[in-house]
Amino acid sequence: MGRHTTRDARHHRPEPRPARWWYTRTRAALAGALVLGVGTTLTLAAWSDDEFGTATFAASTFVVESQTPSSTWAAHEAGNPATLAFNAVAMSPGLSQYAYIDIRTTTATNIGGTAALAAVSAATGTLLPQLEYRVVVTPAATACNSAAFTSATVPAYTTTLATTTAPPSVSGALSAAGASTVRFCFDVRVKAGTASTFQGGTASATWQFTSTSSS
Fold this sequence. Notes:
- With 215 residues, the chain is α+β, with helices and mostly antiparallel strands.
- 14% of the residues lie in helices and 29% in strands.
- The chain has helices spanning 6-12, 19-42; strands at 64-68, 71-74, 96-105, 113-124, 131-138, 171-174, 182-190, 204-213.
- Strands 2-1-3-7-5 form a 5-stranded antiparallel beta sheet, with no helix packed on it. A 3-stranded antiparallel beta sheet has the order 6-4-8, with no helix packed on it.
- A hairpin with a 2-residue loop joins strand 1 and strand 2.
């Protein structure tokens, strides 16, 4: 009565695990190892290397000077303007008088630019309302006389020397180190038809020239 049948013995024997179960556990363990490996790699230090660039900066120098037949090359500021050599001690209506001023950069200047007539900075005298003028830019070797005003591009007369009136728009190119000269040639006259009551009258005017560097 105590004997177990063969069928009963089969019920108590552990069943063998299939090979697929072992493969799944092995793959899971390997996956865990791979994850651990990735985490370890992220903690490694990286190599680095640097490059550097340097530069030196210096401002340009832009200084101009001027001359007329009665003055040498020098800086002529508002307090000591160059004198334009007009033959203007016996002017008559409609009779032009001519004079020039040359402007260039100094030898220490290392950049070019432009010189332009900017304004009449000062003007006084009883004859002033009866004066008119025009101005052109010519090469330094060109004589400043009536021939300088024969071009079709010569501006009309500016009918007053008053400081409140804008001057003609005229300018010339300056080269560095005094390599070029801009000559401003002026034609000034007493207006035609000026009344005889202005005889013996006098006037004076100062023009301002502004030079600007190219950059």
